[in-house]
Design a protein that fits this description.
The chain is an alpha+beta fold. It has a single domain, classed as Sandwich (Immunoglobulin-like), CATH 2.60.40. It is 15% helix and 48% strand. Strands 3-4-5-8 form a four-stranded antiparallel β-sheet, with no helix packed on it. Strands 7-6-9-10 form a four-stranded antiparallel β-sheet, with no helix packed on it. Strands 1-2 form a two-stranded antiparallel ribbon. Strand 3 (55-62) and strand 4 form a beta hairpin. 10% of the residues are buried.
Length: 143
């Protein structure tokens, strides 16, 4: 009996790691402050190694849709992909400065949209993706 309990206790951490697809962070009051979907390490760097272009991908979930934010190093553009977007879904992409000034506000009608930040000063921006009255924010560093 003790051997069975010990074996189950040793396997519990392995089984719990396999189940963690979405990770949540909570504040002291128990409110969810963020969610993270660990992406496959192979998806973090994509591209032609000869010209040193690389893509950085960060995933999130909004209203049961996977939202993928892709930045291409050196191009000052951000691509937003929304998997499973339907024509009945309402989606808006907004980019704000750290001081809260709206610099980009565009509707999304396709599965993929690109935001060009080359005409804006280098700095930190906030990308807000609103999908069917739910939203999520990403920090963008425009170099």
């Amino acid at each position: 009996m003790k051997e069975t309990i010990l074996a189950a206790a040793l396997l519990l951490p392995i089984a719990s790691r396999a189940q963690s697809i979405v990770q949540y962070t909570y504040d002291n009051a128990g409110n969810r402050t963020s969610q993270t979907i660990p992406s496959d390490r192979r998806n973090e760097t994509i591209g032609n190694q000869q010209d040193n272009t690389r893509e950085r991908t960060v995933d999130g979930i909004i209203d049961e849709h996977v939202v993928r934010v892709v930045s291409l190093y050196g191009q000052r553009r951000v691509r937003v992909e929304i998997l499973g977007l339907e024509s009945s879904d309402e989606c808006v992409l907004s980019v704000y400065t750290v001081s809260g000034r709206l610099v980009v506000d565009q509707g999304v009608e396709a599965l993929q949209s690109t935001i060009d930040l080359s005409s804006y000063r280098p700095g930190i921006y906030i990308l807000k993706v609103c999908l069917n009255s739910e939203f999520a924010n990403w920090k963008i560093i425009n170099k």
